[in-house]
């Protein structure tokens, strides 16, 4: 009986030892994705991390790649990516100064980053609970850190999740509502909240990037000739659809499941540029789209009544009939103040400057119209009306189709977000000015000429004729001198050839005949006289 009891004790010890080492081996060789209470915390001075079950994301402490300081942050990044791509940062505004901090569930039931000196650097800030044992945090394969309460049941109540508190990156599973914002990093080395914010303006139902409190970029709308570029439909669906099939942008009959977006992300970078990235088959991230794509794509880059053109040395300039509101600011490269009109409008002598190939912000209203004359009168008779555009309907040659409608677009508010389209997507815009400041059929930005007085035109014409006549006479004299010089040179060459040929013939005759010395002298004299006579005849 005693032997059996001793054997059982040895077996029990062996079994417990096996279980202990197996558990230790499991912890060492297999990454965990969950934090429970109480458990070993994740420290910022060790290699401990959380890795999602499918090994897509990893959570741990890190130092930004370009940082020169010692600050440490708790973040989430793509697991085993060639370059660490951080998608979420907990303590972005409160970096840890040194080692000695840990990430764990505290006694009051919160997730918290605590320093050994008792300082809290980040917390979920939930109401305290007397029973934190049922609380757990789990890193999902979507990149979402979920903190919940099992409440002694198989179901977990989500109390907090990182997807509701993003930093600068949007992932599949998030929903860009009015309460959700992406905030850029301060710099590539500092995840602190920066100057740029991306969010949905539900009042206008448009996505907007703000630079502090100023609009930096606004998602464009289809139709007419608005200046801002539109976000791709696929990207829009990604931002607002997180459940159910997503309509395919090219066909209403094809749908894309939400899982199709698992390898995509949207990021707001430190310069305020919204970037849409996709992971390709080679596991490399490729940039699919970005905005604003250049200086002129920034909302109202040149201010009110200022137009933008990247092909000019100075991108911004005022519309014809307008001048910089602050000349000093413009000289310093700050065009945000825009332009002011040279002469007062809403007078009897108002007219319109026609600017070609323009893009402009959305009109205040539009209506059907028979001709441009009525569109012009509508604007002229309603003050303030700053501009109009007559959009002529296309003529349909097929009899089974109705002709499209002519439209009149009216701008009563200030003109903003103006761009010169050059050869792509622009239309004529007629801007109201005083008659002294008008240009007719000019290119955008006042590049056309004003009507010149008749005396000035006549004077320029006469001066041009005199200059051209002088050039013509000088050219004729120069050509005549060259001709005479060429003729003289040719005559000299002929004379030399003649002399050489005559002398040669005479010498050949003397050598061929048997002549005495007296005869040869006579022939030499005759040769000289003959040559001179031939030269006289030339």
Automatic annotation (TrEMBL):
CDD domains: B_lectin, PAN_AP_plant. Keywords: ATP-binding, Cell membrane, Disulfide bond, EGF-like domain, Glycoprotein, Kinase, Lectin, Membrane, Nucleotide-binding, Phosphoprotein, Receptor, Serine/threonine-protein kinase, Signal, Transferase, Transmembrane, Transmembrane helix. It is found in: Cell membrane. PROSITE patterns: BULB_LECTIN, EGF_3, PAN. SUPFAM superfamilies: alpha-D-mannose-specific plant lectins. One of its GO terms (cellular component) is plasma membrane. This is non-specific serine/threonine protein kinase. It comes from Salix viminalis.
